[in-house]
Amino acid sequence: MDAEITIRVADDLLMFLPAARREPVRRVPYDGTSTLGHLVESLGVPLPEVGPMTVGGDPVDAAFRPRGGDEVLVGAVPRPQPVPPEPGRVSPRFLLDVHLGTLARRLRLLGLDTAYHNDMDDPALVVQANEERRVLLTQDRGLLRRRALWFGAYVRGSRPDDQLRDVLGRFAPVLRPWTRCTACNGGLVPVDKTEIERELAAGTRRSYDVYGRCERCGQVYWRGAHGDHLEEIVREATRLVADARGDGDAPDGAAGGTDRAGAAVSE
């Protein structure tokens, strides 16, 4: 007969357990050979969501093989969660799956390097995330279980507001609002009104004088009808990042960028 081990799961991870068995303490059969990572995933918890684990008070990792009678404590990832730094970068880069299009636009509004495709399958997403060292954001638990993925994170929440709060609270990235194209992720640069007058509707030409253009796709931006709403998103995001960092102040660079709002942002 197989031995048993006791697994205590952090409250933040209970959402990944089947609803009928969503209790923090589980006694599970153990065959003597499976790794702790395999056992935790068999409960439904993707390993990218798992933080510190201990057995008998001693830290262990996913490759650890417990013994019958062991009691395992499984914690959630720390917040803010560090991401392996890249030279010259102050914030992680992100890649979002097909279901997170509005979140992608909001992250770009905040100046975060965010790749998004509405037609890319799971293997291709993993390849891009690995090659470009992007954090893959998804609500697909199966995608997070792919062993080849270098860094992934489950996005909590069904509404874009909640999803954005979750990502900012988890990673506390440095924000550069108004510096990226919300349509394609390219960089925005100031453009003189005289250079783009022919592209503007008559009402826009009369009402606005400050414009930006995407270096990649050519999209023109100005502070349009959605400006106040977008400003509120930026203010709330800046506050959330400051709270996540525990400094009570806006993160360095959070108010950077030029004075323009993206008319292409859709809610």
UniProtKB/TrEMBL annotation:
Pfam families, per the entry: Mut7-C, Ub-Mut7C
InterPro entries given in the database record: Mut7-C_RNAse_dom, Ub_Mut7C
Organism domain of life: Bacteria
Domain Ubiquitin Mut7-C, first and last residues per copy: 4-74
Domain Mut7-C RNAse residues, every copy: 92-233
Ranges of biased composition (kind: Low complexity): 251-267
Region (Disordered): 244-267
Name the record gives this protein: Mut7-C RNAse domain-containing protein
